[in-house]
Amino acid sequence: MARLLVVGCCGDKQQLNELFFKYTLEGVLHFASLIQVVESVIDPAKYYMNNMMNTLALLQAMKDDNVDPLFFSSMAADPFTHTCERHSAETHLIPLAIGK
Question: What burial class does residue 7 get, using C-beta atoms within 10 Å of its C-beta: 0-12 exposed, 13-18 middle, 19+ buried?
Answer without folding.
Answer: exposed
